[in-house]
TrEMBL record:
GO terms for cellular component: ATP-binding cassette (ABC) transporter complex. Residues 1-29 are annotated as: Disordered. The keyword ATP-binding applies. Its EC number is 3.6.3.-. It comes from the Bacteria. This is Biotin transport system ATP-binding protein. Gene3D superfamilies: P-loop containing nucleotide triphosphate hydrolases. It holds the Pfam family ABC_tran. Belongs to the ABC transporter superfamily. It comes from Nocardioides marinus. CDD domains: ABC_cobalt_CbiO_domain1. PANTHER family: ENERGY-COUPLING FACTOR TRANSPORTER ATP-BINDING PROTEIN ECFA1, HEAVY METAL TRANSPORTER.
Amino acid sequence: MPLLELDGAGVSVPVPAGSEPRSGATGEKALLHPTSLRLTEQRIGIVGANGSGKSTLARLLNGLVSPTTGRVLVDGLDVGRRGAEVRRRVGFCFTDPAAQLVMPTCVEDVELSLRRLERDPARRRERALAVLAEHGLAAQAHQSVHDLSGGQRQLLALAGVLATDPAVVVADEPTTLLDLANSRRVGDLLMALPQQLVLLTHDLDLAARCERVLVVSGGRVVADADGPAGVAAYVDAVDRGQA
């Protein structure tokens, strides 16, 4: 498995003028306090309340967010210095697939993902169609992305990420907008991936299937355990009003 490392990595943002600083007298707010982690498991869940800092942590892993303190490494590559190389290794799937689906049709969207890997247009189209078929979207290949169901859109967004064969897939609440059947379908797909998976989710049953779960609260990792134990720690913190 790839090695993901946070070495004192933290993220702070300036407090708007006239606001009360929330991190001492520095005029900054910490979205993620300095954090050190070594992540080697195949399936890693991250749970926490909205605004807890879990998305900030995950976005550090492929450079969508840059640390203001410390550093982030992917197999020894510094994300801040070698971001392009890291992003080829770490694919990111957003909660809302509309943030990723930018081309008119399904096949064109997957082709966009493949543009750096396959220069020949005919071969790129062939590979894109194969990717869609692999994920049960062959019949929608030439359909507008706007005409897909919510589950189909999320599958298409995942297909575009997986088409480039990243070593790591970061999925930020990928089942939040889905009904139960599609949530299960997407969850099962993610859990079966050969890649290392970093999964942010409010679906605690899905999180419990991970080898390791991080609980994030107030911009800090407050619990770090195996899947069931991590979920139990989060539920306990919620019950005590501490998450």
